Amino acid sequence: MLADIELSQTDPVDELSRIFWGILTPDLSQTEDLIATIATTLCFALVAICLSAIVGLAISPFHHLWWVNGICTFVRSIHELFWALIFLQIFGLSSLTGVLAIALPYAGTFARVYRDILDQGSVDFNQAFCGRVSGVSKWLYGGVAQCWPALTRYTRYRFECGLRSATVLGFIGLPTIGYYLETAFSQGLYHQAGGLLLLFYGVIATIKYWLKAMLIPVYLVLAILYLPWKLSIEWQYIWRFISEDIVPSPLRSTLIDWQEWHSWWVDVAQQVFNGGWATLMLSFAALLLSAVLTLILWPLASKAICRRGYMVGHGLLIVLRSTPELIIAFMVMLVIGPSMLPAIIALALHNSAIIAYLLARTADQLPLRHDKSSGLNLWAYELQPRIYPSFIAFLCYRFEIILRESAMLGILGVTTLGFYIDSAFEAMFFDVAMMLILASALLNMIVSYCASRLNRSRQLFG
After folding, report:
1. CA 461 to CA 293: how far, in whole Å?
2. DSSP string, 302-353
3. How far apart are CA 274 and CA 423, in angstroms?
4. C-beta separation of 439 from 76 below 8 A
5. Full set of structural domains in the chain with CATH
6. Closest CA to 356 of 290, 304, 401
7. What percent of the chain has pLDDT over 90?
8. CA neighbor of 410 nearest in space, from 298, 279, 312, 316
């Protein structure tokens, strides 16, 4: 086993019991500005998702162009936490930092997925429209209008993802719920942390009741008015950051010291290799555990298998998929100590819950014979073989997400690329940080390409 999964805590039962007892007996009375914290998290997510959805929809007709596809792939390959660290140097701890950090990678994702939805549901525009109709009208009325239900369903799902992203941004100081969760867990205030988590679950579980299409413009206006947009931008510092700070240090002088240039590249290459290797090991381990947990979890949320008891499994999946990986990893790290194991467990629990939910929904839509089996036999001999292609496809798709999250979890001390990126920002080595971020993006793009080719080959050859 190449991954570092050593247990540092010899007696984790006591800490684990304290965490669970805190979650079971939540306390919200001592949490300051709780309503403001939830409102800020919601506002960050809402403004960012609306902005990214509009940009993504506008880009989607051109996503087939290689250079547009390349730009979208690049921006979504960089985790929103890394974008936040970059914008933090320009705009400081401001609302603009949080909104742009979420909106930029999400716009690249929206452009790709919207394009796929429109391609699958669109009709032949030339046959559907007669006369001289502009291309924009054909696109809006023949494509967007026809696929509007699918577009809105995916946008609603991304809003839930945006809430998790906004929560994670609290770990770098933005006043979202993640900031208070980290503080509560770090200080051992598990009753307060439990209350915050349960409140967060409640917000996500009730999205379908309060996130109505007719109310979104009202929510958006209120969110824009609520967030503090005051910026004290010093353009000379921004120009210095762009023109000097992120330029490799050996190139800043007129005379290049080749020995210094060689040493700088060797140091960066060493960090890229060590961080990239750790990121890959962590990602593959998390993918394998995700596959195993998915096979265990999805039957628990299936009506066909568990019948009335499926709601218990469905509730478990809501909790696991609603909790950001960074929060889960932070909790597990408090119990078993720092290593790769908390990150592996966190990634596996979160991603297996998402895949299990999708598989359970797919399995429940399959037609079954009147003389079907039940229980374990129904799962093993009928449903699982029939949804196996979807199982592999979901794993390939989620592996790209796991790789991005593996790099990001380095801020907790796991020696992935995120660890070296965070260390470089703390030491104000912005040139090194930018090279590491580019390396992380390149690694994600390579894995994304390989996963898509593998999935395409599986579809062609069955």
Report:
1. 27
2. -HHHHGGGHHHHHHHHHHHHHS-HHHHHHHHHHHH-SSHHHHHHHHHHHHHH
3. 14
4. no
5. 15-245 (1.10.3720.10), 259-462 (1.10.3720.10)
6. 290
7. 37
8. 279
Structure token digits, residue 137: 């009208």
Residues 6 or more apart whose Cβ sits within 8 Å of residue 199 = 28, 34, 38, 177
Match 């990239």 to its residue by tokens.
Answer: 276
Token duo for residue 422: 């965070």
Q: Please give the Cα distance from 139 to 118 (Å, whole number).
A: 9
- Write the CA distances from 244 to 92, 262, 352, 433, integer angstroms: 18, 19, 43, 13
Which amino acid does the sequence have at 296? I
pLDDT of residue 31: 58
Which one-letter amino acid corresponds to residue 58?
A: A
**Sign (positive/negative) of CA torsion 249, 253, 259, 261?**
positive
Phi/psi region, residue 92 (left: phi>0; alpha: psi -120 to 50; beta: rest), is left
Q: What is the pLDDT of residues 80-137, one digit of tens each?
A: 999 999 999 888 888 999 999 999 999 999 999 998 888 876 555 445 555 555 566 6
Let me know the angle formed at the C-alpha of 181 by 179 and 182, rounded to the nearest 5 degrees: 65
